[in-house]
Amino acid sequence: MSENKNGWRTQPMYSFREVSRLSGISISTVRNWLFGYTVDERQVSPLIKASADATCCSFLNLIEIMVAARFRKSEGCIHSTKTYVT
Q1: Structurally, how many domains does the chain consist of?
Q2: pLDDT at position 4 over 80
C-alpha cells in the first residue's frame, strides 16, 4: 500500500490566484512565501515549504499561508498588546 497518508491535504489543487483571494495577500507575496526572493542582492528563504516547480498550492500550503497572513495583518495589535504587558 504505497498511497500517500496525507492524500488530498498535500495534493496541489489551489491556484496562486485562489490562495491570494482566500488569504487576502497578493499573488506576488504568495509566490515569495513559497519560493523565496532576492532583496538587495540577499536571498530570502521561502517561508512555506513547497516543491520548486509548484504551480499550485496544496490544502496544507493554503492553511499555512492563511495563518501567516493573519499574523502579518495582526502585527499592529501585537505591538500595542506588548505595550500594555511590559
Answers
A1: 1
A2: no
Query: Does a structural domain hold residue 81?
Result: yes
CB 53 within 8 A of CB 35: no
Structural domain contains residue 4 = no
pTM summary value = 0.76
Segment 10-27 shows an average pLDDT of 95
* DSSP string across 43-75: EEPPSS---TT-SSB-HHHHHHHHHHHHHHHTH
- 51 CB neighbour count, 10 Å cutoff: 10
Domain span holding position 20: 11-85
The three-point CA angle 71-54-57 to 5° equals 45
Question: CA 34, CA 48: separation in Å to the nearest integer?
Answer: 5
- C-beta of residue 24 within 8 angstroms of C-beta of residue 68: no
